[in-house]
Amino acid sequence: MVKISISLDAELVVEAMVLSGAGNPQDAVELVVRDYIQRGHRTEARVLEQDEALHDRTARPRDVEG
Question: Is the dihedral of CA 8, 12, 17, 20 positive or negative?
Answer without folding.
Answer: negative
